[in-house]
Design brief:
Elements: H1 5-18, E1 32-36, E2 52-55, E3 71-80, E4 86-94, E5 100-106, E6 110-111, E7 115-125, E8 130-136, E9 143-155, E10 163-165, E11 167-174, E12 176-182, E13 186-194, E14 199-206, E15 210-215, E16 225-227, E17 232-237, H2 241-250, E18 252-263, E19 269-278
Antiparallel strand pairs: 1-12, 2-8, 2-9, 3-7, 3-12, 4-5, 4-6, 4-8, 5-10, 9-11, 13-14, 14-17, 15-16, 15-18, 18-19
Length: about 290
Amino acid sequence: MIRGNRHHARIAALCICAAGALIATSSATAAVTIGQLAPGTPDANCPLSTGRDYLQPSVTGGTLYVAREAGTITSWTTNSSGAGATYVLKVYRRTSDPDSFQVIAQSQPQHISAGINTLPVNLAVKSGDMIGYHVSGPANSCAFTQLFDNVLFRNGDLADGASGTFAPQNDVRLNLLAVLVPDNSFTFGTITRDRRRGTATVSVNTSNPGLVAIAGKGMKKRPSKNLAVAGPATFSVATVGKTKHKLERKRRIALPVSVTFFPIGGDPTTQTITLRLRRTRPPAPV
């Protein structure tokens, strides 16, 4: 189950009362972090060799180096004990070969200085993509010792779109953290109408897992839906109160309906559509 269900449900109610365009709870963009930095003062001598590509497909504990959602990596950080090395952040994706990985995107080369280095970037990722980097130059703090962890490495420097076979190096973890802004986009899918009842069914396709809420003035309340994976959420739409009486009387109405999507860790977004509902007259009694 997605964490924070109650919290998201409360926010959903507030957002739908605002009923409009994009909703943001603060001026800052919500984001999640992947990867982690070396604890304390990093070792000046990286346990990894330079002139190689590296990635971290799993960890024995702590934050994964894997994107759990689609989105955009907006910055990355490393903690270095000295200056002089050159890093290139890379995004990797699994292939059909379990030992082979493909480079999906990469940053421009960055010369690392002593201390915390945080570099802006704009790299799109999908769920399951992994971060790593190419390291060149003098000895540096590109990784730290961590028992039972395995970093994967490959000699050379893979270009975008290229794939290569990687081998493990034991008891090592990358000194790398990235900020991921989850994608909050969604689209409306199939809309079907039942003219006999004057109702409709609305399908919403999300870009990520998260919570989807639907509401509208004169619409019967529907519970929000949690999505464990990106995909469609379907809601039935029916009228209540004065709106229902109006539909019964006039046989047709325009019903504004707002849908709000809350990606996990990201900003919510809202879209409003107008459903044109019709209801046929019941047959006259015989």
